[in-house]
Write a structure and sequence with these properties.
About 70% of the residues lie in helices and about 5% in strands. With about 450 residues, it is of the alpha+beta class. It has a six-stranded antiparallel sheet, with helices on both faces. Helix 6 crosses helix 8, helix 8 packs antiparallel against helix 9 and helix 8 packs parallel to helix 14.
Length: about 450
């Protein structure tokens, strides 16, 4: 087996006639082998096609169509760019190897969504979700399939007259807003992504809140290094989560403030407009062909030779007028689509989840305020203990000064100088009592001074 593999990988050995040039057969074989090694290609035997395919970054994607059917696709980056008409920098936001903040981008034919663990590309015909074993991703797929399937079953159960009546009511009720069942496919997918992102962040915020409050209560009763370290870690988690929630909130708020970005996200409407434009182009082309037949010669009746030269210049005029009318209609439709696009549906959808994510941010802000208040309370307690230690140190310093009086008296009477007071038998008692009374008076004088200066609560 090894010999066969080696024979396939190595080039064929050239046949050399023995005894050429009078060399030794062993030397000839060594020279041939060295020549073969030098002439052998550098990457012979390596699968270069496989290397190129692996370099393109083929990833597994979950495709969900408007009917709720799902399938797994193996698509490389280049094919995905052509399929969704997206630049490479937008696809880089969905790369799981990199960590990017939450982003919602509206493009010409797709919506790029990167919300926490939900990374997908939404078009008018499908949702391409990055395949993962994450529980949130699987729940997103099942929830989206359930909602799409429910809508499909509801439409199948409705009768034709009921469908017409429902369509008329939805078209006539301009100021009441549209219901969730009337949302296009891309907004349904975006709604599920926003719902999962907001609920995931809110659940994490609630879990962190339940973990922080007992630790802070324990810290207020017992200040220790272990409790302080625990609070520091929880505060770091809180800051990171606040940043993530703030980014999602800012992204939704930015979309709500810009009507053009919201109008770009109406993919189904743009697709229908493109189909209508293509139908108008086909109709104008058929009209041009019919006008050519009518001008050059009718198939039903002959045209007089006198009238045909006069009618021949009419074809460019008709074509010019039709082109002008088509261009005017297209520009009018584009202006109406850009200025009068009904962005109320998307705005209401974003506003609903903006309220949810703003509530989560307020919850985290309140939690951070509680942590700051606890830190201030702990600092006050530490300052109080520090003040008590300073007061005790001041008392000790005063007592030390009083005791120094005895040292001065002992130093004076310890000199080898003859004094008449040494001959008195009760001199020691008088000196000791007098020095003690003087020390007490000095100590009381210091306490009175501290009380007058409010250095110590006495």
């Amino acid at each position: 087996m090894a010999e066969n593999l080696k024979a396939r990988l190595l080039p064929p050995r050239p046949s050399t006639p023995p005894g050429v040039g009078g060399d030794n057969p062993t030397d000839v074989s060594l020279k041939n082998r060295s020549n073969l090694i030098l002439k052998r290609p550098l990457f012979q035997g390596m699968d270069m096609v496989g290397l190129k395919k692996r370099g393109h970054g083929v990833r597994s994607w979950i495709r969900i169509d408007p009917a709720g059917n799902s399938q797994i696709l193996e698509v490389d980056k280049t094919s995905l760019m052509r399929r969704c008409d997206l630049p490479a920098r937008d696809l880089r936001l969905l790369d799981p190897l990199f960590v990017y903040p939450s982003t919602i981008l509206g493009r010409e034919r797709a919506i790029v969504v990167n919300l926490e663990r939900i990374r997908c590309i939404i078009t008018a015909d499908e949702v391409l979700l990055l395949n993962s074993l994450d529980n949130v991703v699987l729940q997103y797929v099942s929830e989206l399939q359930g909602r799409l399937g429910y809508k499909l079953r509801a439409l199948q159960l409705l009768k034709p007259d009921e469908q017409d009546r429902k369509r008329a009511l939805s078209d006539g009720d301009m100021f009441s807003g549209s219901s969730a069942d009337d949302l296009p496919f891309e907004f349904r997918a975006l709604e599920v992504a926003l719902e999962f992102a907001c609920s995931y962040l809110d659940a994490q915020a609630t879990e962190l809140q339940q973990e922080v409050y007992p630790v802070l209560d324990e810290l207020t009763t017992k200040i220790s290094t272990l409790n302080l370290e625990h609070v520091r870690r929880l505060k770091s988690r809180l800051v990171a989560m606040t940043r993530r929630v703030q980014k999602v909130r800012d992204e939704i708020e930015q979309l709500m403030d810009d009507d053009r970005d919201m109008a770009e996200m109406y993919l189904t409407e743009k697709k229908e407009q493109n189909l209508e434009f293509s139908f108008l182009d086909q109709k104008s082309t058929s009209f041009f062909n019919y006008s050519n037949v009518g001008v050059g010669g009718s198939m039903s009746a002959p045209v007089s030779p006198v009238g045909s030269p006069m009618n021949e210049p009419l074809h460019p005029v008709i074509e010019k007028r039709l082109d002008k009318s088509l261009s005017l209609s297209r520009s009018r439709q584009d202006s109406q689509a850009s200025s009068q696009t009904a962005v109320e549906e998307l705005e209401m959808l974003l506003e609903a989840y903006f309220v949810v994510i703003d509530g989560t941010l307020n919850k985290l802000t309140t939690l951070k305020q509680y942590i700051d208040d606890t830190e201030d309370f702990i600092n006050i307690q530490l300052d109080n203990v520090r003040n008590q230690l300073i007061q005790f140190e001041l008392l000790l310093t005063t007592a030390t000064f009083v005791m120094a009086v005895y040292s001065v008296v002992a130093g004076v009477f310890g000199m080898n100088i003859p004094v008449a007071l040494f001959d008195e038998p009760s001199a020691f008692k008088w000196v000791l009592s007098t020095t003690g009374i003087a020390g007490i008076l000095i100590f009381l004088g210091f306490l009175w001074f501290f009380k007058q200066k409010r250095l110590m609560p006495l």
